[in-house]
Design a protein that fits this description.
The complex is a heterodimer of chains A (about 230) and B (about 70). With about 230 residues, chain A is mostly helical. Helix content of chain A is about 80%, strand content about 0%. Chain B contains three helices and one strand. Chain B has about 70 residues and is mainly α. Chain B starts with about 30 loop residues before the first helix and ends with a helix. Classes of the chains: A mainly alpha (about 230), B mainly alpha (about 70).
């Protein structure tokens, strides 16, 4: 007969809380990742890690329900909780990686086709503040956090930092994205003004050429006209 | 009428002959995008996955490398 009440030790509860917390963050990141992916794609790696996490949790629940009497009790539970935690942890890392690179892609796509002059005029703090911050997050902070991800002692701390810097990156990307209409408008005016300048320049050049030609013809005519 | 609580216990081990199925490690899925799309009419799950709109591990690795190599304007 299966157990009617399931209890967890403090150690097991701590594991389960971490699993639930990281699952919640991963799920939120995964939904957000699907929203911002330029090709509307999902990430199979996350699904696979969460599937494996569920598999190990099922073993724990099965044991706790008394359905697996032959297993090595506490050790079996701890091993599977540890593995479930490892999978949800990797799911979070993989999803953060996907989201952060999609955010970088989003900046590149948002600013694509705009001249540096337009970017500087519409987002005056882009080159002085936003770009250095984004570069630091992508090229220093995230690289360091990914390099240290397997250091067991600091893993939770690293994952929390990774979540925080990715959220910061999202804020910076939003600041750039909301300027898109102004960028389009400014670039249109700049292109129009350049076209007007080109037309004016062409008019001046044409007038100089015609005037010059006429002057040459006139000088020639003066020089060759018959003297009375 | 209130539904009676009952535990359903299906017969296990009928398909791959393994009774201890819970302790078998799952393998990395070999995702075949073309087959997924072809069989999508049978799927009631995620639309993205049914349409093959997902990155496999190798596809993501490839895209990841190209995104890492790109520079911001």
């Amino acid at each position: 007969m299966p157990a009617t009440n399931i209890t967890f030790s403090d150690h097991e509860t701590e594991y389960l809380l971490n699993i639930v917390n990281f699952y919640e963050v991963t799920k939120e990141l995964y939904i957000y990742g699907e929203q911002i992916d330029p090709e509307n794609r999902s990430l199979a790696q996350t699904i696979n890690e969460l599937r494996n996490c569920l598999d190990h949790l099922m073993r724990v629940v099965s044991y706790k329900l008394g359905l697996r009497p032959n297993t090595n009790g506490e050790k079996y539970v701890n091993t599977n909780l540890d593995k479930a935690y490892g999978h949800v942890y990797r799911a979070a890392y993989d999803t953060l990686d996907w989201v952060s690179l999609n955010l970088k892609d989003s900046i590149i796509r948002d600013l694509q086709g705009f001249s540096l002059e337009t970017i500087q005029a519409v987002i005056p703090n882009y080159f002085s503040e936003l770009k250095p911050k984004v570069d630091k997050i992508l090229n220093e902070d995230i690289v360091r956090l990914r390099d240290d991800k397997d250091v067991a002692a600091s893993s939770e701390d690293n994952l929390e930092k990774y979540i925080r810097v990715t959220a910061e990156l999202k804020q910076l990307v939003q600041q750039i994205s909301e300027k898109k209409p102004s960028l389009i408008e400014y670039q249109k005016r700049l292109n129009q003004s350049k076209r007007n300048q080109q037309v004016l320049r062409f008019g001046i050049d044409a007038a100089i050429a015609i005037g010059g030609g006429f002057l040459v013809w006139f000088i020639g005519w003066i020089a060759t006209r018959p003297q009375n | 009428m209130e539904k009676e609580n009952m535990v359903i216990e299906p017969i296990k081990g009928l398909f791959i002959g393994e009774k201890n199925i819970l302790d078998i490690e799952l393998k990395e899925p070999n995702l075949n995008k073309a087959l997924t799309q072809k069989l999508s009419y049978r799927s009631r799950g995620s639309v993205r996955l049914s349409l093959g709109l997902f990155y496999t591990r190798s596809e993501w690795e490839q895209k990841r490398k190209s995104l890492l190599a790109e520079h911001l304007p």
